[in-house]
Amino acid sequence: MKKLALILCLFAGGLLLMNAHYLPMWGDPASPASTHVSPYFIENAYEHTKTPNMVAVVLADYRSYDTMFEAAVVLAAGFACFFLLRSRARGKKGGHHYYRHIPTGVTIKIEEGGKLPAENSKVFRSIDALWTPYDPIIQTTCRCLIPFLQIYSLYVLAHGHYSPGGGFQAGVVLGATIILLAISHNLKTSLKRMSERTAALWSIIGVFIFAGTGLLCLLLGMDYLNYEVLAPLLLSDEAMARSHSILIVEVGVTMAVMAVMVWIYYNLSSAGQQDEGL
Amino acid sequence: MIIFDIFIALLLAAGCVFLLGGALGILRMPDFYTRLHGASLLDTIALVCLLSASILYVLTRHPDVNGLITSLKIILIAVFVFITSPTATHAIADAGRRAGLKPWTRQNEEESP
Amino acid sequence: MIPVDIIVLTLIIICALGALAAKDLMVAAIVIGAYSFLICLLLAVMGAVDVAFTEATVGAGVSTVFFVATVFQTTRRTKD
C-alpha cells in the first residue's frame, strides 16, 4: 500500500513538474492575471472602497464569496471535530482526583469515594491527573502576556484596512490566547473563561454576521454581498459603506475563526471529554 | 554616516557569530540541558545584536518621527522576546526534568559511554 | 550569489522529507511547524505579507498545537 502511494505521489508530482514551465514567470507583466484582473483592482480599489490595503478589499469585497465560504468551512471543521470526538462519558482513569492546596502548593490525591472539596473552593484547586506543573513563572508570564496579545489581535483586526492583517489572522491570534491560557494553567481555567457553549455560539454568530450582511444587501434590492446598498443604513456614501462593511464582515470572520480554534482545541486536547487538557 | 554603517555591520556580524555559536552548541554539547542553555542564551544575545543593528539602520536612514516609531516597535519586539524566551527555556527544561532526564556529569558518562 | 528563495526552497524540501521520514510523530509535528515558518519566510520574500502573516499564525502557530494535542492523545509511533 505504501509502495502504491509512493508511485502515485511520484506520478502526480512528475506531471505537475512537467507542466510547470507553462505557468507564467513570477511577476510577469504579460501573464493573463496581470493584464486583465489586477490592473482593474489596482486602479479602482481605492476609489470604490476608500481602503488603502488592496488585499483586504479583494478578500472582503470583490471576492467576498470566497471569504464567506472559507469561514463556513472553518465552522464545518469545528462541527466535524465536535461530532467525531465529543463524548459525554467521564472516563476518569482509576476514578481518583487530584487537588492542589494553593497556600502550600501541596498536591493531594483523593481516592474514589473520598470527600471532594467544594467546586468553588479558594483553598483547593482541581488539577489534571497526568501532571500540571505548579509553575508560578510560566503562569505569571502567560497571565501578563495574554492581554497584550489580545489587544494586538484587535489591532490587527481594526487596522486591516491599512496594513497586513484582517479577520483570519486576528481570529487565530485571539484564539491562540485562550489556548495559551489552557496550556499554561489548565483546561478548566480556560473553560471557565470561555465555555464550550460560548465557543459554539460565537462561531455560528460570526458566520451569521457575514452571511447576514450579504442577505441584508439582497433584501435591500441589490446583489448578495454588494455593500453599496447599505449606505443609508451606515449613514455614509457608497465608498465608505463598502469600507465599513468590510470591517463588519471581518469582525464576523474573527469571531468565527477564534471560537472554532478554541473549540477544536478543547475537543482535541481532552479527547472529547473536556475534563482534563494537556 | 560611514561610522554608523561600520558599526551596523559589526553588530550584524556579532549577531551572526552568536547564532552560529548557538547552533554549534546544540550540535556539540553532551546533553539536553547544556544544549538548551547554549541555544537559549546565545539566541537572545544574537537577537539583541541584530535588533540594535536594525534600530541604528532605521534611525540613520530615516531620522524623523516615522523612523522613531519604527525603532520603538523594534524595541517592543526585543522587550517581548526578553520576557518570553527565558520562560520558554524554563518550561522546556522543567519538562525535561519531569520526564526524567538526568543532567550530564563525568560519572554518568563513564557509566554509560 | 544564490538568491534567498532558492535557499529557503531547499530548506522547505529538506523539512518536508524530514517530516515524512521521522518515526516519531511528535518530531514530525515539530518539523511541520518549521516547514510552515519557512513557507512564511518564502511568502514574505515574495512580498505577500498578508499571506505570510496568515501562514505564520495558522500554519506554524495553531496547527502545530493541534498536531501536538492529537499526537499526545493517540500514539507517538507511526504504523509504517
TrEMBL record, chain A:
Residues 31-87 form the MrpA C-terminal/MbhE domain. Keywords: Cell membrane, Membrane, Transmembrane, Transmembrane helix. The chain crosses the membrane at residues 67-85, 144-162, 168-187, 199-225, 245-266. Pfam families: MbhE, MnhB. It is a multi-pass membrane protein. It is found in: Cell membrane. One of its GO terms (cellular component) is plasma membrane. Its main location: membrane. Residues 137-262 form the Na+/H+ antiporter MnhB subunit-related protein domain. Belongs to the CPA3 antiporters (TC 2.A.63) subunit B family. PANTHER family: NA(+)/H(+) ANTIPORTER SUBUNIT B (PTHR33932), NA(+)_H(+) ANTIPORTER SUBUNIT B (PTHR33932:SF4). This is Multisubunit sodium/proton antiporter MrpB subunit. It comes from Desulfobotulus alkaliphilus.
Automatic annotation (TrEMBL), chain B:
InterPro entries: PhaG_MnhG_YufB. One of its GO terms (molecular function) is sodium:proton antiporter activity. Keywords: Membrane, Transmembrane, Transmembrane helix. The chain crosses the membrane at residues 6-27, 39-59, 71-93. This is Multisubunit sodium/proton antiporter MrpG subunit. Pfam families: PhaG_MnhG_YufB. PANTHER family: ANTIPORTER SUBUNIT MNHG2-RELATED.
From TrEMBL, chain C:
It comes from the Bacteria. Coiled coil: none annotated. It is found in: Cell membrane. Pfam families: MbhD (PF13244). The chain crosses the membrane at residues 6-22, 27-46, 52-72. InterPro entries: MrpA_C/MbhD. Residues 11-75 form the MrpA C-terminal/MbhD domain. Keywords: Cell membrane, Membrane, Transmembrane, Transmembrane helix. It is a multi-pass membrane protein. The keyword Zinc does not apply. One of its GO terms (cellular component) is plasma membrane. This is Putative MnhB-related membrane protein.
